[in-house]
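Rather than argue in generalities, we reproduce a single protein record, letters for residues, whole numbers for local backbone shapes, just as it appears below:
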Amino acid sequence: MIRTLAFGLPRLGPNREYKGLLEGFWKGRLSQEDLLRGLVEVRANLRNMVEAAKGLRQRLGG
């Protein structure tokens, strides 16, 4: 069985959204509320990607 690993993706997001949010907060461009709201969105998007991958694996018979 072949397994894949997406090292760093859960923490960063596919387009490094986590990094952008955190740096925006540090530079004062984002409030704490905006930061937290953005992080919730990044986590939800990553969760959806994982669920979609699980569904694809089931359809392919893996």
Observations:
- The helical segments are 9-12, 17-26, 32-59.
- DSSP finds three helices and no strands in the chain.
